Amino acid sequence: MILLQSQSRFLLQTLLNRVQNLEKAVELDYHWVEFNDVRYHILVSTKNPNVLLLSVSLPTPPPEAVFMGGLPGGAIEAIKAAYGVVVHILDPPRDGFNLTLKLNLAKLPPDEEHRYALLVKIASVREVVLGAPLRVVLKHLASRTVVPDVDRVLALVHRPKESFFLVSQPDKVTVVFPMRFKDSIDTAFATSFLQEFVEARRAAGLNNAPPCLWSPTPPLELNEAPAEALSANAGFVSFVIFPRHVEGKKLDRAVWNLSTFHAYVSYHVKCSEGFMHTRMRRRVESLIQAVQCQHSRMLSLGLSKPWEREGGLGFRDRAG
């Protein structure tokens, strides 16, 4: 199975190209969408080639997942901690976006390794922003505490008008994903994939991975969640995260894997569909080839009718 990378490849490549050509005054005006939910915009003017404006539009939150100032809780603090003096947050952001960052490329670290690491982090802005509240909860879990003044069941946005849920306790955090798909074929593939995913967790080599469960109905942990947020045509997936899963450098990977879990499943569903379509096309092509070979053989024997057979009369001839 393929794990998705946290950084936007297009954004990272654009930043690297811009840093390598700072002496060239060029205009950039790029728009693109990733994960079918986050929209990006890069703007660079010839008047100030060292400054790059990066705007991000986030998924529309459902009623149960509240944004503060257009951003998830803790996002501003996470941005400042991740990017330091290189990035300045514009307030208000550009029209149509939740966040606009002003990057001063002249303030990047002179050391090539550190500069590249920071550019990768900037290209991971989706993880930094959308994963901010999840990171806060998991940081508290690492110290075996819970976030004060936060509901026991916390809803976080991960897709347009869709949320997943965190149920925090001092010694564990249960993460529950209602899995929804618009297409009935996607739903069937996803349901089968998730059941196999849970079974794979029981393999001996995955003993240290977080426990994983799938059920067609909401788990008991979501009794306090609003009923309208619990519709799921592909069931519910639950992960139980313990402090050992978020210690040290494991925290970043845990935040990314959890915040993009639905995209991860969707990716493998589409890959499965593509594989099946390829197999079906190959099967049809082989059948067509067999028919064409037989037709050529019949023509070589002077048989022009499908009921004519080599070595005797066909059914119609006998009937006549």
From TrEMBL:
Protein's name according to its UniProt entry: Arp2/3 complex 34 kDa subunit
Pfam families: P34-Arc
Any single Gene Ontology cellular-component annotation: Arp2/3 protein complex
Keywords on record: Actin-binding, Cell projection, Cytoplasm, Cytoskeleton
GO molecular function: actin filament binding; structural constituent of cytoskeleton
Family per similarity comment: Belongs to the ARPC2 family.
Subunit structure: Component of the Arp2/3 complex.
Superkingdom: Eukaryota
Subcellular location(s) of the protein: Cell projection; Cytoplasm, Cytoskeleton
Functional description taken from the UniProt entry: Functions as actin-binding component of the Arp2/3 complex which is involved in regulation of actin polymerization and together with an activating nucleation-promoting factor (NPF) mediates the formation of branched actin networks. Seems to contact the mother actin filament. Arp2/3 complex plays a critical role in the control of cell morphogenesis via the modulation of cell polarity development.
One BP annotation, GO: Arp2/3 complex-mediated actin nucleation
